[in-house]
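User: I'm writing a tutorial on reading structure tokens. Could you give me a worked example: one chain, its sequence, then its tokens, then a sentence or two explaining what the tokens reveal?
Assistant: Sure. Here is the example chain.
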Amino acid sequence: MLNQVILVGRLVYDPELRTLDDGTKVTTITLAVDRTFKNAKTGEYDTDFIKCSLWRGIAENTVQYCKKGSTVGIKARLAQRYFEYDDGKSFSYSEVIAEKITFINTQTKKD
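And here are its predicted structure tokens:
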């Protein structure tokens, strides 16, 4: 069995590093990924916006070397997450968790 996602896209916003209570570093990015075919109604290429979680060293390197507009490739896996509200209602969603990132066209932040 295989659980693998490969995406190449542009960062929608500057990644920001967060540190969890246990010291683990994490960032969440949104990739703008253009579709390979045109929309039949508009004649334009549509774009999907895909949220991805990056952990530990991958997160730190991405925050250091990338900013909004940088092009990256990620190899990731999908994880199914479940969330329950206080009122007992619940929902599930798929999360893209990056395992490897390749910086294709970085736009390094100027500090």
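What the tokens reveal: The chain has a mean pLDDT of 92. DSSP finds one helix and six strands in the chain.
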